Amino acid sequence: MPDSNSLKKSPSLDKWISIVSDGRVLIHTGKVDIGQRISTALAMIAAEELDVDISRIDIARTETGVDPDEGITSGSNSMEEAGNAVRAASATARRHLLSLAADALGVDVSTLEISDGLIQSRGTNLSVTYPELAGDQTFGIDVDPEAPVKDPATYGVVGKPVVTRGLTEIVTGQPHFVQDMKMPGMLHARIVRPPHYKARLKSLDDSAAERITDNGCEVVRDGSFLAVASADEFAAVKAAERLFESSDWDLGEGLEPQDIFERLVTNERVSLPVVDGVPQKEVVKPLASPPGDAAATLKARYEKPYLMHGSIGPSAAVALADGDKLTVWSHSQGVYVLRASLSEALGMEIEDLTVIHVPGSGCYGHNGADDAAVDAALIALAIPGKPILLKWTREDEHAWEPYASCMAMDLTASIDGDGKVIAWSQDTYSDTYGMRPRPEPGGAGPARLLAMQYREEAVTPLVPQPNMSRHAGLHRNLDPLYSFENKRLVKNLVRDLPLRTSALRTLGAFANVFAIESFMDELAEEAGIDPVTFRLNHLEDQRAKEVLQAAADKLGWGLRCQKDEDGALHLRNTKTFKPMPRSR
Amino acid sequence: MTKISLKVNGKMHEVECDPATPLIYILRNQLELVGAKLGCGLEQCGACAVMVDGEHVLSCVRAASEFADAEITTVEGLAKDGKPSALQQAFIDEGAAQCGYCTAGLVVAATALLEKNPKPDDAEIREALHEHLCRCGSHLRVLKAIDRVIQGSASHA
Questions:
Q1: Nearest residue of B to residue A180 by CA position?
Q2: Nearest-CA distance B121 → chain A (Å)
Q3: Does the pLDDT value for residue A570 go beyond 90?
Q4: Domain of B142, in residue numbers
Q5: How many Å apart are CA A353 and CA A382, to the nearest integer?
Q6: A103 and A219 co-located in one domain
Q7: What is the pLDDT of residue A456?
Q8: At CB < 8 A and 24+ separation, what contacts does A572-578 make?
Q9: Which CATH number covers residue A60?
Q10: Which of A391, A422, A454 is the last residue of a domain?
Q11: Which of A502, A517, B24, B124 has the most beta carbons within 10 angstroms of its beta carbon?
Q12: Which value, to the nearest 10 degrees, does the dihedral of the CA atoms of residues A409, A415, A420, A422 take?
């Protein structure tokens, strides 16, 4: 199997698999359910490699200090990382259990067969089960990444339909989400948000705050971080509204209305040339004049606005401070990463902190989950001994979550008389996509957490550094799939933009690809060449060519385009271009 | 604080609350029926849908006291003898959820529709569900699940 970071961090088999006495198998993973149902996929893999019925495989909630640290659940890496790790762990466990069975039964291992955790020796009535072999012992061995795995041709579970994990509970309304948690003595909390990012709390009307506390609600204030908590959820909702009405905020300079796309290209920025998808620490060359043999030179600007994740359930978290310990239940995509940043932000020892994953609403990148966890933690520390269920409101989620950045893409290209691209330039302008609370030197973790900016000892928001990885962040797919001889590609990380930004699906990729493909259409039209042919003329990658050709064939593209007498392209043969059939 | 009586999933409950408390908080917190979800609190997303006297009602704004004497059915009340209803089973069979946060609302809305009109046409289904937002994009599978129930009841007729 490929080199596995997951197994390097957690080599012990016991970190991944526990055989439970009732015959169930508990799989541990650091990858979490965020709507994509990775737990179902992992259960299928474990069932397949362990020869245990999938109904008896459980997937543990990821808990720091207990389950493997697999970083962040993002970037479509979960099957590659957790999937391969669980596969190797299950194969290792199966081999180990077979060897224990051979010893226990006094037979050769080659005579053994497994069916749903029952190991039998062929031609005898000797058998033993997984729990009998495991007893109360742990495995005490490491996962062998080379342990033989099954031939996919023999798969009985993987590739076959199964009911996804949790779906029955969801459809019948059973508790499933962090928002559904209920604990004895639990208080419901809401945040009283500033009117805008830059506003700071000047004063609270004491008599109003007293009325709120007399009413059985707690008020938590730390600088401009303001929250209420109550055993009654609706009382907390009303108290938050009243507290806001009786609070006085310094609005500072406010937020200036400006054309965001103008700011993108005029603000201070870090500009880096991109070569082979990788930003270079070099000076950007200015855009050259069109080559002498240019038959035409086109320019275009493409823009993408800020986008919100807009999860249908606003972010939430439960936190409980008990003595020196703090436990947080969160729908964060990275419980270990969050724990490390919480430790730094709160000045607590890492061993005193536990973060446990509980599903939230669908997550399409870095939404408010981590920020809500910090909010809940701050309230819990102020009201020790009581579990705090903090729910963001719809307004919180829409106004305060980290958005996907707005972007502008400036393209310039020249074609020669044969319709070949002989110069290509793209400048992409964007804010960062990398504001997950990763602990990094200089307090970068806490500086990415929303509440930290509003506490009495406020932390200045992080000024992000450009991501220098290949095809990462805002320059993902900036380097086009097409082969152009004369490319000038520039990543521009723009400073001082007005909104918080972080990861949303594919980061900068789809805006870059939209710009590239839209511009290819412009160029094809200018060249008077069918846009599919124009693309094929600029592709060297065989797989890409075949994909494009297959897509064109499926769409009945073929002879769709013809030139009229003036050389303009027109669609023809449109009968072959059928709309997609309705799915029901 | 006042006492109100609510009939939920066939059982009477006496609860003490601020009479202005929206129904959803009573259902989720006092009665521990967490199937209805708080999505927007503005009657705009549909995640909090319940049935009241067979009608599709959003529970996040209207006060619980408005529903005294009414028959309230939540998504938990649709299962019979611990078994999911035919529609719930169809949602499961079609995998008609991604994250599932909006799903209970959709199940309730579709149940309310089918109780009134067992064979709705496509336009009627879309009309009944159009206020239910799903950010993951489960809509087409939801339509398939409803279709499965309509086809199923047709074959049994």
A1: B34
A2: 11
A3: no
A4: 86-156
A5: 16
A6: no
A7: 97
A8: none
A9: 3.30.365.10
A10: A391
A11: B24
A12: -70
Reported as a single tens digit per residue, the pLDDT across A5-40 is: 999 999 999 999 999 988 899 999 999 999 899 999
Closest CA relative to residue A557, chosen from A518, A539, A538, A530 = A530
Task: Let me know if residue A450 belongs to a domain.
Answer: no
Do residue A90 and residue A203 come from a single domain? Answer: no
Q: Strand pairing of A353-357 and A325-330?
A: parallel
Residue B103 confidence (pLDDT): 98
- A319 domain residue, yes or no: yes
Residue A400 C-alpha, separation from nearest chain B C-alpha, in angstroms? 15
d(CA A300, CA A319): 50
Assess whether pLDDT exceeds 90 at residue A584: no
Within a domain: residue A239? yes
| Position B156 pLDDT exceeds 70 | no
Distance, in Å, from the CA atom of B48 to the CA atom of B64, rounded to the nearest integer, reads 13
Tell me the per-residue pLDDT of A528-544, one tens digit each, with 9 for 90 and over: 999 999 999 999 999 99
Q: For residue A391, what is the enclosing H or E element?
A: strand A388-391
**What is residue B155's predicted lDDT score, i.e. its pLDDT?**
58
In this structure, how many other beta carbons lie within 10 angstroms of the beta carbon of residue B83?
Answer: 10
Whether B25 shows a pLDDT value over 80: the answer reads: yes
B80 lies in some domain:
no
Mean confidence (pLDDT) of chain A = 94
Residues A294, A212 within the same domain = no
Question: Taking a C-beta distance cutoff of 8 angstroms, is the pair A497, A433 a contact?
Answer: no
The upper half-sphere exposure of residue B54, i.e. CA atoms within 13 Å in the direction of its Cβ, equals: 5
Asked if the Cβ–Cβ distance from B92 to A171 is below 8 Å, we say yes
Q: Are residues B14 and B55 in the same domain?
A: yes
In a domain, A227, yes or no: yes
Q: Is the pLDDT of residue A213 over 60?
A: yes
Is B28 within the bounds of a domain? Answer: yes
Considering its fold, how many domains does chain B have in total? 2
What's the pLDDT at A177? 98
**Domain identity same for B69 and B119:** no
Its domain, for residue A152, covers 5-168
- DSSP of A419-449, one letter per residue? S-EEEEEEEEEE--S--S----TTTTTGGG-
Interface of A with B (CB under 8 A): 34-37, 163-164, 166-168, 170-177, 179-180, 182, 188, 232-235, 309-314, 359-364, 391, 393-394, 583-584
Do A546 and A563 share a domain, yes or no?
Answer: yes
DSSP H stretches of helix in A528-564: 531-537, 542-554
Which H/E stretch holds residue A526? helix A509-527
Q: How far apart are CA B84 and CA B80, in angstroms?
A: 6
Q: What is the per-residue pLDDT across A225-253, written as a single tens digit (0 to 9) for each?
A: 999 999 999 999 999 999 999 999 999 98
Final residue before a domain boundary, out of B75, B97, B117: B75
Contacts of B122 in chain A (CB under 8 A): 584
